[in-house]
Each structure stands twice: as C-alpha cells, then as structure tokens.
C-alpha cells in the first residue's frame, strides 16, 4: 500500500520530532511500505535505523531486528522508548519475569519492534516462540557481516536468509555503512533483493579532513603529543594491540591530557564506565583497539587518530565515520608506516585453521555422535581441536550449510545456586508434589561451603521429570529471591547426517575455503596500503572503493582538503628491516617448545604452531602449553609470517 508523502512527513514530525527525512531515508521507507525488501547503505551516523523504526509503525505485525552488539540494541531501545514506540529486546540481562513480559507483549501485538542478537536463534525456547509469532519484517543491522567478502564476517549471519524463510517474514531490510560492490551483490543475492531496491547515499562527507603522514615508529609518541596539543574537544586514538592502548594512554596522561585506554581485556563494568564518561564529556580522549566504536553515537567527536595503520579500508571508513556527526569540521589523521604490516597479516594467519585441525574436528564429530546426536561446548572443543573460537564457529556453520549438521537446541550443562533463605523455609512455601519435587532437587545438589551444584545425571536417573521443569523451578526460586542461580557451560546439540560426513573429502574442501579467505584478507591489507599512497584525491578513492558513484562530482577537482589535495602524494618508506633471530637461540627455543608440546599435547608442534609461536600469535594448543612463559615467544613478531616459515624450513 502506497502512503502519501504528506502523511509520512506529518507522522515523522509527530512520532520522532523531525521536520524532514535525511537523504535516502524516505526512499527506503517508501520501498518497504510498497512491500519491497531493501538494502540501505548510508554513512555511519546518517540515520539508517530510522528506516525500520518509522516503517515498523505502519506494519501489521512486529519487526524483528538482529543486531551484532548488545550496546547497539541498548542505545536504539532507549531512543525508541523515549519516543513512546513500544520496543523490547531479548538478551541474557533479562530476569525471568522480564523475559516472560517481553514474550507476552510480543504475542499480544503490543510490541512493534523486538531486538535480538543473532546468537539468540540458537536458543530452542526462543526459536519455538518466534516461529509462533507472525512477523512483518526482518531487519539485519551491520548487514555486511553476512558476506564472506566483508571485513567483519560473522558466521551465524549466514543463516539469516534461512531464518527469514522459516519465520515467513515477507520483508527484509539490510543496513550497513560499508559495502563494496562484491559485498552489495552478495547481500542482495542471499536475501533475493532486487538491485533497484538498494539505496546508497553519498559516501563522501565534506566535513571530514583525511590526513596521512609518514611517522617512523620511534617518533610516534612525540608526534601524537604535538598533534593533540593543537586539538580541542573529544577524540579517539585507535591502536592495534591491547598493551599499546594502555601504554599510549599512560603517555598522554603523563602529559596532562584527559585520556584513558579501552580494549577487550578490561572488565565489562570498567569499559562501560569509560564509554559513559566519554559520551557525557567527562573524558576527552579514548585510546582504543577496535573494541571501541560500534554503538558510539557522539555528535561532537572532533578527531580520530590511527596510531597504526587500520586493519582495512572498511575499518578505516567505519572508524573515521565516528567523527564530526554534528556536521562540523573534524580531522582524521593516520600516522603511517609499514612496521605493523606483519601484525595485521598475523591476525589473518592466526584465524586460518590447519587441515589437520579440521580433520580432528570432523573425526571428533564422527566418533562422538550417538544416535545421530552430537553435543558441543565451544571452549573445550576449541582447546581439543586447536581451532580458535571464531574460525571454529565458521566451520560449524559451513557444516550446517552443506547439511552435515542441523542445530536442534542448546542447554546449560551446569547449574549452581546458593540459598538466600533457609532451605526448610522454602519447602514450607509449597505443598504436595511440588514441595516433594523441590526437596529432591535440593537432595541432588551437593553443597560446598556456599554454592550447591545440581547433579543432573543423578537426578534424571531417578526422576521422569523433564529438564525444562527443573530449570523452570530453579528460575522461579531465583525470581522469588529464595536462591541465587548461576548457569554455566552452554551446550549445543546438533543432528548429524553421517552419510554426508566424509572426513578426508570435507577436510580438503574446508581447508581450501579457509585458504581462499586468507588470500582475500591479505588482498584487503594490500588495498589499504595502495589507498594511502594514491596520487589522486583520497576522498574520491574512498568513494570509488565503496562503489559510490557520487564521487563523479568530485573526480575532476578532488575534495580540496584531504592530504593528497593539499600536499600531494605520500610515499611511505619500506618497513624497517626486521632483524633475523640468532639461529642458536632460535634452535634452543624451538626445542623447549617441542618438549612442552610433546609433554602436554602428546605430539610435537606442527609447522604452523612453530610459526605462530615465533610470531606471537595465540592458539588453543599454545595456550595449553603456556607458550608465553617460554623465552623467545614472539621473537619474530616483526617478521612477516611467510618469512618466518622460510627461516624454519632453512633449519631442516
């Protein structure tokens, strides 16, 4: 049904307080209201979310929004609730009562927008619920995560087109700020979206000044301090590694600047405190890894500094996109040298599982399958197969897509609780069979000092009750304040198609798949290096990279304010030649690693394990042998991975 332009504008003013749509928003809204699934590609901070928030008000059934981050859901939910739009989220922070209330409100049609993470679909209870609710639209936030050509590929996103079909959601809306031509095509193909329904606004933002300067590594601290002495207001300094964030923040604080570090190694409450202080203007500068960014919607960020080269052009565009959202001039400064190229490449190599590890995973599935059922806990499986958690998730999704695995449900293998009210007092609150049922749960919960652990194996051998009833009972006691409940060891259960589980053939195909991914990622780094050394306008080239034809208006004269337009082409000298390791020390280090590996793992290291150890790249097996305690760990961190391999081959 087509809605009149005038009516839409009136409702925009009434519901959201905006006088008019931003560029591209109404084009997307009108397509959706006409029943056409769409893709919205707008720059960071340009109002992509409004496209679904506004449209959802016109649709007969709830809109389901899939978001990759809890922080994004929290911010968008607060915005919706402040405009009296009935919206809710389902995540692990909800209490039992809150969860049931959300379910009830969605079922009744009271809730217009429901937000979840993609991982929520693994929860059998959620999937049963959401499949029973009629939906009008599925929204995929940060939709580039679905593309294996993309820079933030998330394996679980690959299943979203399948979920849309299973949920019978007639509309899909994909939102992203960064999509190359390949990624756009990939997203559209997976969701069967017509090319005419891809709405892309201009990538270029004339208030962002792109500056790049060659800065040798030993001069970076002083150059950064000089730069910041000329800047006022809030800013972000991006670094590559966690320890770097701490070190640079310490230097800035010692110089009297209001700065703090932020990275994934900090506790959740501390990260939240730093983010809140930054958003409220109590903190001027955050020195951060890429862990800081998504969900940061602060209008007056005046500068974004890349202390090291960013991971990719996609990362660069997202990170500079956090500056100047108020439309005022903001500076984006890259302190470029090629010394951290090996670090960027090592991130790529670290996520490529060895063929032998893939075979170990497939053999594990084969031998542990019982009556076509296989149970898996991610961390122990990662430690057992020597595959890091992200590539392990990717492998499992690939096995789903080719039909080897079918996810059934997930459950917690361990429940612990402590009594907040005397055990007998609790039992007195219940009568008959319910009291007896709780008594038996308590009987099969061995108490160690404070916490009691529920023995599920013992209990279910004696009782015909369902696991669901036990969990519901413990949840109820927790909500009533009688006990404090903790659940651990999330276990996923799959159905296995053994006829398709051909280990050697699959291992070869999956190893090739990861090799191709590795090549793509290395090409992405090469594109980044080429970009910063262009002899034509950086703004034009950034638009061209993201397939934005709006750059045609700029192409002849350039933007006039990027580094190339102002100062000309930047030539970045070759990386400082890394010093080859002393071969005697290297041999001694490798012997110690081999001894520890054989002792703990039961077999010597593979070539890749040796390379990763020398490069300082983590792996599950290296963690198990406590590789960091071996002298010489990371001794080749500044040498490119391929060169480390050559050094090792020369020793044989």
Describe this structure in words.
With about 650 residues, the protein is α/β, with parallel strands linked by helices. Helices cover about 45% and strands about 15% of the residues. The protein has 27 helices and 18 strands. The strands form three sheets. Strands 3-4-2-5-6-1-7 form a seven-stranded parallel sheet, with helices on both faces. Helix 11 links the parallel strand 10 and strand 11. Helix 2 packs parallel to helix 3, helix 14 packs across helix 21 and helix 25 crosses helix 27. The longest helix has 30 residues. It is globular.
Detail the poorly predicted runs. none
Main sheet record: 7 strands, parallel
Structural class: alpha/beta
Name the average pLDDT. Answer: 88
Number of helices: 27
Helix content: 40-55%
Shape: globular
> Major sheet: order of its strands?
3-4-2-5-6-1-7
SS strand fraction: 15-25%
| Separation of the first and last Cα atoms | 72 Å
As a whole number of angstroms, the C-alpha radius of gyration is 27 Å
Number of beta strands = 18
